[in-house]
Amino acid sequence: MNDIYQSLFTPLPLNNGVTLNNRFAMAPMLVFASNQDGTVSQDDLYYFALRNRVGQLLISGAMAVSEEGLGMPRAAGCI
Question: What is the pTM of this model?
Answer without folding.
Answer: 0.72
